[in-house]
Amino acid sequence: MAADGMTVRRLWIRDPLAILAEGAAGGVVVEGSRIAETVPAGAHPSAPVDETFGAGRHVVIPGLVNTHHHFFQTLTRAHPAAINKPLFPWLQALYGIWGRLNPEAFRLATRLAYTELLLSGCTTAGDHHYLFPQGLEKAVDIQVEEARALGIRAVVTRGSMSLSQEDGGLPPRALVQDDDTILADSERVLRLFHDPKPGAMVRIGLAPCSPFAVTKRLMRESAVLAERYDCPLHTHLGETRDENAFCLEAFGQRPVDYLEEVGWMTRRAWLAHGIHFEDEEVRRLGAAGVGVCHCPTSNMVLASGHCRTCELEAAGSPVGLGVDGSASNDSSNLMEGVRHALMINRLTYGAEAVTHRDALRWATEGSAACLNRDDIGRIETGREADLALFTLDELRFSGAHDPLAALVLCGAHRADRVMVAGRWRVIDGQPLGIETGRLREEHSRLAHQLFG
Fold it and tell me: Which N-terminal residues, if any, form the signal peptide (predicted)?
Protein backbone atom coordinates (compact mmCIF):
# COMPACT_ATOMS: atom_id res chain seq x y z
CA MET A 1 0.00 0.00 0.00
CA ALA A 2 1.08 3.58 -0.61
CA ALA A 3 1.42 6.08 2.24
CA ASP A 4 -1.92 7.64 1.23
CA GLY A 5 -3.69 4.29 1.51
CA MET A 6 -4.00 3.74 -2.23
CA THR A 7 -2.79 0.48 -3.76
CA VAL A 8 0.50 0.84 -5.66
CA ARG A 9 0.31 -0.70 -9.11
CA ARG A 10 2.76 -3.46 -10.03
CA LEU A 11 4.33 -3.39 -13.49
CA TRP A 12 6.20 -6.35 -14.96
CA ILE A 13 8.79 -5.38 -17.57
CA ARG A 14 8.80 -8.82 -19.09
CA ASP A 15 11.33 -10.98 -20.93
CA PRO A 16 13.78 -8.37 -22.23
CA LEU A 17 16.10 -9.11 -25.13
CA ALA A 18 18.93 -8.68 -22.60
CA ILE A 19 19.29 -7.14 -19.15
CA LEU A 20 22.28 -5.93 -17.17
CA ALA A 21 21.41 -7.83 -13.99
CA GLU A 22 22.07 -11.29 -12.61
CA GLY A 23 19.16 -13.73 -12.51
CA ALA A 24 16.73 -11.29 -14.15
CA ALA A 25 16.37 -12.66 -17.69
CA GLY A 26 12.60 -12.79 -17.13
CA GLY A 27 12.54 -9.07 -16.34
CA VAL A 28 11.77 -6.89 -13.34
CA VAL A 29 8.67 -5.98 -11.38
CA VAL A 30 8.27 -2.32 -10.48
CA GLU A 31 6.08 -1.32 -7.57
CA GLY A 32 5.82 2.38 -6.79
CA SER A 33 9.23 3.96 -7.23
CA ARG A 34 11.23 0.78 -6.57
CA ILE A 35 12.15 -2.56 -8.04
CA ALA A 36 10.01 -5.06 -6.16
CA GLU A 37 11.36 -8.21 -7.75
CA THR A 38 13.72 -9.56 -10.39
CA VAL A 39 12.36 -12.48 -12.40
CA PRO A 40 14.54 -15.42 -13.54
CA ALA A 41 14.34 -16.74 -17.10
CA GLY A 42 11.12 -18.63 -17.79
CA ALA A 43 9.58 -17.66 -14.45
CA HIS A 44 6.71 -15.42 -13.43
CA PRO A 45 6.51 -12.83 -10.64
CA SER A 46 5.83 -14.19 -7.17
CA ALA A 47 2.69 -12.05 -6.82
CA PRO A 48 0.08 -10.81 -9.31
CA VAL A 49 0.87 -7.78 -11.44
CA ASP A 50 -1.46 -5.06 -12.66
CA GLU A 51 0.28 -4.40 -15.96
CA THR A 52 2.82 -6.04 -18.24
CA PHE A 53 5.19 -4.36 -20.67
CA GLY A 54 6.67 -6.78 -23.19
CA ALA A 55 10.37 -5.92 -23.51
CA GLY A 56 11.33 -8.50 -26.12
CA ARG A 57 12.81 -5.76 -28.36
CA HIS A 58 14.66 -4.01 -25.54
CA VAL A 59 18.04 -4.18 -23.86
CA VAL A 60 17.48 -3.07 -20.27
CA ILE A 61 20.21 -1.42 -18.22
CA PRO A 62 20.20 0.58 -14.99
CA GLY A 63 19.54 4.25 -15.59
CA LEU A 64 22.84 5.99 -16.28
CA VAL A 65 24.15 8.38 -13.61
CA ASN A 66 25.93 11.52 -14.78
CA THR A 67 28.36 12.88 -12.19
CA HIS A 68 29.79 15.95 -13.90
CA HIS A 69 28.36 18.56 -16.26
CA HIS A 70 28.01 22.31 -16.78
CA PHE A 71 24.54 22.80 -18.21
CA PHE A 72 24.99 26.46 -19.12
CA GLN A 73 27.70 25.53 -21.60
CA THR A 74 25.16 24.05 -24.01
CA LEU A 75 24.83 27.66 -25.20
CA THR A 76 28.46 27.86 -26.37
CA ARG A 77 29.03 24.59 -28.20
CA ALA A 78 31.72 24.62 -30.90
CA HIS A 79 32.29 28.32 -30.25
CA PRO A 80 34.96 29.71 -32.59
CA ALA A 81 36.66 31.61 -29.75
CA ALA A 82 37.45 28.37 -27.93
CA ILE A 83 37.82 25.46 -30.35
CA ASN A 84 41.23 23.82 -30.75
CA LYS A 85 42.52 25.02 -27.35
CA PRO A 86 43.66 23.25 -24.16
CA LEU A 87 41.93 23.94 -20.83
CA PHE A 88 43.41 27.21 -19.54
CA PRO A 89 43.32 29.11 -22.88
CA TRP A 90 39.88 27.58 -23.51
CA LEU A 91 38.60 28.93 -20.19
CA GLN A 92 40.15 32.35 -20.71
CA ALA A 93 38.50 32.59 -24.12
CA LEU A 94 35.07 31.74 -22.75
CA TYR A 95 34.93 33.50 -19.37
CA GLY A 96 34.12 36.87 -20.95
CA ILE A 97 31.48 35.31 -23.17
CA TRP A 98 29.80 33.43 -20.31
CA GLY A 99 29.41 36.68 -18.39
CA ARG A 100 26.46 37.49 -20.69
CA LEU A 101 24.41 34.61 -19.29
CA ASN A 102 20.95 35.60 -18.05
CA PRO A 103 18.16 33.66 -16.26
CA GLU A 104 16.09 33.01 -19.40
CA ALA A 105 19.04 31.56 -21.30
CA PHE A 106 20.16 29.58 -18.25
CA ARG A 107 16.72 28.04 -17.80
CA LEU A 108 16.64 26.91 -21.44
CA ALA A 109 20.21 25.60 -21.22
CA THR A 110 19.26 23.60 -18.13
CA ARG A 111 16.09 22.23 -19.73
CA LEU A 112 17.94 21.23 -22.87
CA ALA A 113 20.77 19.52 -20.95
CA TYR A 114 18.36 17.54 -18.76
CA THR A 115 16.42 16.48 -21.86
CA GLU A 116 19.54 15.43 -23.76
CA LEU A 117 20.75 13.39 -20.82
CA LEU A 118 17.37 11.73 -20.33
CA LEU A 119 17.19 10.76 -24.00
CA SER A 120 20.62 9.14 -23.72
CA GLY A 121 19.37 6.86 -20.93
CA CYS A 122 20.47 9.02 -18.00
CA THR A 123 18.12 8.99 -15.00
CA THR A 124 20.25 10.90 -12.47
CA ALA A 125 21.78 14.14 -13.71
CA GLY A 126 24.56 15.82 -11.82
CA ASP A 127 25.53 19.40 -12.63
CA HIS A 128 28.37 21.62 -11.41
CA HIS A 129 27.21 25.20 -11.77
CA TYR A 130 29.82 27.75 -10.69
CA LEU A 131 28.82 30.83 -12.69
CA PHE A 132 26.72 33.50 -10.91
CA PRO A 133 26.92 36.79 -12.83
CA GLN A 134 24.66 39.61 -11.66
CA GLY A 135 21.03 38.61 -12.09
CA LEU A 136 21.66 34.86 -11.93
CA GLU A 137 21.90 34.52 -8.16
CA LYS A 138 19.04 31.94 -8.11
CA ALA A 139 20.65 29.55 -10.61
CA VAL A 140 20.32 26.54 -8.29
CA ASP A 141 16.61 27.25 -7.82
CA ILE A 142 16.15 27.21 -11.60
CA GLN A 143 17.93 23.87 -11.94
CA VAL A 144 15.80 22.28 -9.22
CA GLU A 145 12.58 23.61 -10.79
CA GLU A 146 13.52 22.23 -14.21
CA ALA A 147 14.49 18.82 -12.83
CA ARG A 148 11.18 18.53 -11.01
CA ALA A 149 9.23 19.55 -14.10
CA LEU A 150 10.95 16.93 -16.26
CA GLY A 151 10.89 14.20 -13.59
CA ILE A 152 14.60 13.44 -13.71
CA ARG A 153 16.58 12.68 -10.57
CA ALA A 154 19.10 15.48 -9.92
CA VAL A 155 22.23 16.22 -7.94
CA VAL A 156 22.71 19.96 -8.28
CA THR A 157 26.00 21.21 -6.91
CA ARG A 158 26.23 24.83 -5.82
CA GLY A 159 29.53 25.74 -7.41
CA SER A 160 31.53 28.90 -6.85
CA MET A 161 34.46 31.06 -7.87
CA SER A 162 35.96 33.60 -5.46
CA LEU A 163 39.49 34.21 -6.76
CA SER A 164 39.57 36.62 -9.71
CA GLN A 165 42.54 37.44 -11.90
CA GLU A 166 43.27 40.35 -9.57
CA ASP A 167 43.52 37.89 -6.68
CA GLY A 168 45.79 35.47 -8.52
CA GLY A 169 43.01 33.29 -9.94
CA LEU A 170 41.84 32.69 -13.49
CA PRO A 171 38.30 34.15 -13.90
CA PRO A 172 37.57 37.88 -14.38
CA ARG A 173 36.24 39.97 -11.47
CA ALA A 174 32.68 40.10 -12.89
CA LEU A 175 32.28 36.31 -12.54
CA VAL A 176 33.35 35.82 -8.91
CA GLN A 177 31.52 36.21 -5.62
CA ASP A 178 33.03 36.73 -2.18
CA ASP A 179 33.30 33.79 0.21
CA ASP A 180 30.60 35.03 2.60
CA THR A 181 28.05 35.44 -0.22
CA ILE A 182 28.84 31.96 -1.52
CA LEU A 183 28.59 30.31 1.90
CA ALA A 184 25.32 32.08 2.74
CA ASP A 185 23.72 30.97 -0.53
CA SER A 186 25.12 27.45 -0.13
CA GLU A 187 23.32 27.16 3.20
CA ARG A 188 20.16 28.67 1.70
CA VAL A 189 19.89 26.09 -1.09
CA LEU A 190 20.77 23.23 1.25
CA ARG A 191 17.91 24.21 3.54
CA LEU A 192 15.49 24.62 0.65
CA PHE A 193 16.25 21.66 -1.57
CA HIS A 194 18.64 19.04 -0.16
CA ASP A 195 17.05 15.67 0.61
CA PRO A 196 19.52 13.17 2.10
CA LYS A 197 16.94 10.36 2.41
CA PRO A 198 17.01 7.21 0.22
CA GLY A 199 15.04 7.66 -2.98
CA ALA A 200 15.60 11.42 -3.01
CA MET A 201 14.77 13.11 -6.30
CA VAL A 202 16.87 16.21 -5.53
CA ARG A 203 20.10 16.50 -3.63
CA ILE A 204 22.39 19.49 -3.30
CA GLY A 205 26.17 19.35 -3.22
CA LEU A 206 28.78 22.01 -2.56
CA ALA A 207 31.28 22.50 -5.36
CA PRO A 208 33.95 25.21 -5.22
CA CYS A 209 35.12 25.25 -8.82
CA SER A 210 38.83 24.42 -8.58
CA PRO A 211 42.02 25.37 -6.74
CA PHE A 212 42.70 28.16 -9.23
CA ALA A 213 39.29 29.79 -8.72
CA VAL A 214 38.55 29.73 -4.95
CA THR A 215 40.17 30.45 -1.59
CA LYS A 216 41.28 27.79 0.87
CA ARG A 217 38.85 29.30 3.38
CA LEU A 218 35.96 28.56 1.01
CA MET A 219 37.12 24.97 0.57
CA ARG A 220 37.41 24.44 4.34
CA GLU A 221 34.09 26.03 5.25
CA SER A 222 32.29 24.19 2.45
CA ALA A 223 33.52 20.93 3.97
CA VAL A 224 32.15 21.99 7.36
CA LEU A 225 28.77 22.84 5.83
CA ALA A 226 28.69 19.52 3.98
CA GLU A 227 29.22 17.65 7.23
CA ARG A 228 26.47 19.63 8.94
CA TYR A 229 23.90 19.02 6.18
CA ASP A 230 25.07 15.53 5.15
CA CYS A 231 25.66 16.54 1.55
CA PRO A 232 28.38 15.69 -1.01
CA LEU A 233 31.42 17.77 -2.02
CA HIS A 234 32.64 18.20 -5.57
CA THR A 235 35.42 20.03 -7.40
CA HIS A 236 37.73 19.86 -10.40
CA LEU A 237 41.12 18.41 -9.51
CA GLY A 238 44.14 17.08 -11.37
CA GLU A 239 42.63 17.79 -14.79
CA THR A 240 45.76 19.19 -16.47
CA ARG A 241 49.47 19.59 -15.87
CA ASP A 242 48.86 23.36 -15.87
CA GLU A 243 46.64 22.92 -12.81
CA ASN A 244 49.38 21.03 -10.98
CA ALA A 245 51.87 23.77 -11.86
CA PHE A 246 49.42 26.45 -10.66
CA CYS A 247 49.00 24.71 -7.29
CA LEU A 248 52.75 24.38 -6.85
CA GLU A 249 53.32 28.05 -7.66
CA ALA A 250 50.35 29.46 -5.72
CA PHE A 251 50.25 27.12 -2.72
CA GLY A 252 53.61 25.35 -2.72
CA GLN A 253 51.87 21.97 -2.94
CA ARG A 254 50.34 19.55 -5.41
CA PRO A 255 46.53 19.29 -5.74
CA VAL A 256 46.11 16.19 -3.55
CA ASP A 257 48.13 17.80 -0.74
CA TYR A 258 45.90 20.86 -1.13
CA LEU A 259 42.81 18.64 -0.92
CA GLU A 260 44.06 17.06 2.29
CA GLU A 261 44.90 20.41 3.90
CA VAL A 262 41.38 21.76 3.35
CA GLY A 263 39.66 18.66 4.78
CA TRP A 264 38.37 17.09 1.58
CA MET A 265 39.99 13.65 1.84
CA THR A 266 36.70 11.98 2.61
CA ARG A 267 34.14 9.66 1.02
CA ARG A 268 31.85 12.67 0.92
CA ALA A 269 33.98 14.13 -1.90
CA TRP A 270 34.24 13.25 -5.57
CA LEU A 271 36.52 14.88 -8.12
CA ALA A 272 36.02 15.78 -11.76
CA HIS A 273 38.65 14.43 -14.19
CA GLY A 274 41.33 13.28 -11.72
CA ILE A 275 43.96 12.70 -14.40
CA HIS A 276 47.41 13.81 -13.26
CA PHE A 277 47.96 11.91 -10.01
CA GLU A 278 51.16 10.17 -8.98
CA ASP A 279 51.12 6.58 -7.66
CA GLU A 280 51.24 7.66 -4.02
CA GLU A 281 48.45 10.17 -4.58
CA VAL A 282 46.27 7.47 -6.13
CA ARG A 283 46.89 5.32 -3.06
CA ARG A 284 45.94 8.17 -0.70
CA LEU A 285 42.77 9.02 -2.60
CA GLY A 286 41.73 5.38 -2.62
CA ALA A 287 42.42 4.95 1.09
CA ALA A 288 40.21 7.96 1.81
CA GLY A 289 37.48 6.71 -0.54
CA VAL A 290 37.46 9.91 -2.61
CA GLY A 291 35.52 9.33 -5.83
CA VAL A 292 36.66 10.32 -9.32
CA CYS A 293 34.40 11.22 -12.23
CA HIS A 294 36.04 10.15 -15.48
CA CYS A 295 35.15 12.51 -18.36
CA PRO A 296 36.54 10.70 -21.40
CA THR A 297 35.02 12.86 -24.14
CA SER A 298 36.11 16.16 -22.64
CA ASN A 299 39.55 14.79 -21.81
CA MET A 300 40.04 13.84 -25.45
CA VAL A 301 38.64 17.10 -26.89
CA LEU A 302 40.89 19.25 -24.68
CA ALA A 303 43.77 16.73 -24.84
CA SER A 304 43.98 16.85 -21.05
CA GLY A 305 45.27 13.29 -20.55
CA HIS A 306 44.23 9.79 -19.49
CA CYS A 307 42.37 9.25 -16.21
CA ARG A 308 43.95 6.40 -14.22
CA THR A 309 40.63 4.62 -13.82
CA CYS A 310 41.91 1.11 -13.15
CA GLU A 311 44.55 2.18 -10.62
CA LEU A 312 42.06 4.43 -8.81
CA GLU A 313 39.49 1.63 -8.55
CA ALA A 314 42.11 -0.83 -7.37
CA ALA A 315 43.14 1.65 -4.67
CA GLY A 316 39.56 1.99 -3.41
CA SER A 317 38.25 5.11 -5.15
CA PRO A 318 34.80 4.89 -6.72
CA VAL A 319 35.04 5.71 -10.44
CA GLY A 320 32.06 7.17 -12.27
CA LEU A 321 31.39 8.86 -15.60
CA GLY A 322 30.41 12.35 -16.62
CA VAL A 323 29.80 14.10 -19.92
CA ASP A 324 31.38 17.36 -18.66
CA GLY A 325 30.32 20.72 -20.02
CA SER A 326 28.94 20.93 -23.50
CA ALA A 327 31.51 23.53 -24.48
CA SER A 328 34.31 20.96 -24.14
CA ASN A 329 32.29 17.88 -24.98
CA ASP A 330 29.74 19.54 -27.30
CA SER A 331 27.25 16.82 -26.37
CA SER A 332 25.21 15.87 -23.29
CA ASN A 333 24.99 12.19 -24.21
CA LEU A 334 26.14 9.87 -21.45
CA MET A 335 25.63 6.69 -23.49
CA GLU A 336 28.08 8.12 -26.00
CA GLY A 337 30.40 8.77 -23.06
CA VAL A 338 30.24 5.08 -22.14
CA ARG A 339 31.60 4.16 -25.58
CA HIS A 340 34.33 6.79 -25.35
CA ALA A 341 35.29 5.48 -21.90
CA LEU A 342 35.68 1.99 -23.31
CA MET A 343 37.84 3.16 -26.20
CA ILE A 344 40.22 5.48 -24.37
CA ASN A 345 40.69 3.03 -21.50
CA ARG A 346 41.45 0.18 -23.88
CA LEU A 347 44.02 2.43 -25.51
CA THR A 348 45.46 3.06 -22.04
CA TYR A 349 45.28 -0.42 -20.52
CA GLY A 350 44.84 -2.90 -23.38
CA ALA A 351 41.95 -4.62 -25.17
CA GLU A 352 41.48 -7.34 -22.53
CA ALA A 353 41.77 -5.12 -19.46
CA VAL A 354 38.59 -3.03 -19.90
CA THR A 355 35.28 -4.47 -21.14
CA HIS A 356 31.95 -3.01 -22.18
CA ARG A 357 30.61 -4.14 -18.81
CA ASP A 358 33.29 -2.09 -17.05
CA ALA A 359 32.30 1.03 -18.97
CA LEU A 360 28.61 0.47 -18.22
CA ARG A 361 29.43 -0.19 -14.56
CA TRP A 362 31.30 3.13 -14.30
CA ALA A 363 28.25 4.95 -15.70
CA THR A 364 25.84 3.26 -13.28
CA GLU A 365 27.06 1.65 -10.08
CA GLY A 366 30.36 3.55 -10.08
CA SER A 367 28.71 6.92 -10.57
CA ALA A 368 26.18 6.13 -7.85
CA ALA A 369 29.05 5.31 -5.49
CA CYS A 370 30.70 8.65 -6.30
CA LEU A 371 27.48 10.30 -5.11
CA ASN A 372 27.36 8.03 -2.02
CA ARG A 373 24.06 6.57 -3.19
CA ASP A 374 23.28 2.88 -2.72
CA ASP A 375 19.64 3.26 -3.83
CA ILE A 376 20.37 3.71 -7.55
CA GLY A 377 22.87 2.36 -10.11
CA ARG A 378 21.91 -1.32 -10.17
CA ILE A 379 18.93 -3.46 -11.11
CA GLU A 380 18.12 -5.33 -7.92
CA THR A 381 15.26 -5.69 -5.48
CA GLY A 382 14.81 -2.67 -3.24
CA ARG A 383 16.67 -0.17 -5.42
CA GLU A 384 14.95 2.69 -7.17
CA ALA A 385 13.26 1.77 -10.46
CA ASP A 386 15.54 3.86 -12.67
CA LEU A 387 15.86 2.03 -16.00
CA ALA A 388 16.98 2.72 -19.56
CA LEU A 389 15.62 0.57 -22.39
CA PHE A 390 17.31 0.54 -25.79
CA THR A 391 16.23 -1.14 -29.01
CA LEU A 392 18.65 -2.56 -31.58
CA ASP A 393 16.53 -1.66 -34.60
CA GLU A 394 18.96 0.70 -36.35
CA LEU A 395 21.32 -0.35 -39.13
CA ARG A 396 24.29 0.19 -36.82
CA PHE A 397 23.22 -2.87 -34.79
CA SER A 398 22.49 -5.24 -37.67
CA GLY A 399 24.53 -8.41 -37.28
CA ALA A 400 25.26 -7.84 -33.59
CA HIS A 401 25.32 -11.06 -31.53
CA ASP A 402 25.75 -9.85 -27.93
CA PRO A 403 23.03 -7.26 -27.22
CA LEU A 404 24.72 -5.68 -24.19
CA ALA A 405 28.06 -5.43 -25.94
CA ALA A 406 26.30 -4.02 -29.00
CA LEU A 407 25.00 -1.05 -27.01
CA VAL A 408 28.57 0.07 -26.41
CA LEU A 409 30.51 -1.26 -29.37
CA CYS A 410 27.95 -0.34 -32.04
CA GLY A 411 27.32 3.10 -30.59
CA ALA A 412 23.85 3.28 -29.02
CA HIS A 413 23.08 6.90 -28.27
CA ARG A 414 19.32 7.25 -27.78
CA ALA A 415 17.05 5.26 -25.46
CA ASP A 416 13.62 4.11 -26.58
CA ARG A 417 12.19 4.19 -23.06
CA VAL A 418 13.45 5.66 -19.80
CA MET A 419 11.95 5.14 -16.35
CA VAL A 420 12.77 7.31 -13.33
CA ALA A 421 11.45 6.37 -9.88
CA GLY A 422 9.00 3.93 -11.44
CA ARG A 423 7.51 6.39 -13.94
CA TRP A 424 8.09 6.45 -17.69
CA ARG A 425 9.78 9.70 -18.66
CA VAL A 426 10.70 8.75 -22.25
CA ILE A 427 8.37 6.70 -24.46
CA ASP A 428 9.15 5.76 -28.08
CA GLY A 429 12.26 7.91 -27.96
CA GLN A 430 10.35 11.06 -26.97
CA PRO A 431 10.56 12.89 -23.63
CA LEU A 432 7.17 13.37 -22.00
CA GLY A 433 6.07 16.97 -21.64
CA ILE A 434 8.81 18.48 -23.82
CA GLU A 435 8.44 19.74 -27.38
CA THR A 436 11.99 19.14 -28.52
CA GLY A 437 11.65 21.15 -31.73
CA ARG A 438 10.44 24.23 -29.91
CA LEU A 439 13.11 23.80 -27.21
CA ARG A 440 15.84 23.62 -29.82
CA GLU A 441 14.57 26.72 -31.63
CA GLU A 442 14.34 28.83 -28.47
CA HIS A 443 17.67 27.61 -27.11
CA SER A 444 19.48 28.15 -30.41
CA ARG A 445 18.01 31.65 -30.80
CA LEU A 446 19.28 32.75 -27.40
CA ALA A 447 22.65 31.06 -27.90
CA HIS A 448 23.31 33.07 -31.04
CA GLN A 449 21.72 36.25 -29.71
CA LEU A 450 23.76 36.32 -26.51
CA PHE A 451 26.98 34.54 -27.42
CA GLY A 452 27.31 34.85 -31.20
Answer: none
Residues in the chain: 452
Angle at 255 between CA 143 and CA 358, to 5 degrees: 65
The answer, yes or no, to whether residue 398 has pLDDT greater than 50, is yes
Pairing of β 10-14 and β 27-31: antiparallel
Instruction: Give CA–CA dist 141/123, Å, rounded.
Output: 20
Q: Matching CATH topology for 10-62+379-431 and 64-370?
A: no
What is the sign, positive or negative, of the torsion defined by CA atoms of 403, 405, 409, 413?
positive
Quick one: CATH architecture of 10-62+379-431?
Roll (2.30)
What whole-number distance in Å separates Cα of residue 123 and Cα of residue 64? 6
Q: How many helices (H) and strands (E) does the chain have?
A: 15, 18
**pTM (predicted TM-score):** 0.96
- Nearest CA among 67, 69, 65, 64 for reference residue 331: 69
- For the chain, domain boundaries: 10-62+379-431, 64-370
pLDDT digits (tens, 9 = 90+) for 59-98: 999 999 999 999 999 999 999 998 998 888 888 889 889 9
Distance (Å, whole) CA 270 – CA 128: 12
DSSP string, 161-205: ----GGGTSSS-GGG---HHHHHHHHHHHHHHH---STT-SEEEE
H or E stretch including 337? Answer: helix 334-349
Q: Which residues partner with 35 through β-bridges?
A: 30
Q: How many CB atoms lie within 10 A of CB 314?
A: 12
State which amino acid sits at residue 183. L
Output the CATH code of domain 64-370: 3.20.20.140
Among candidates 405, 341, 333, 383, which has minimal Cα distance to 64? 333
- Closest C-alpha to 294, from 365, 362, 347: 362
Q: What is the pLDDT of residue 325?
A: 87
Q: Can you say whether the dihedral through the CA atoms of 155, 205, 374, 71 is positive or negative?
A: positive
**Do residues 378 and 65 touch, judged by C-beta distance below 8 A?**
no
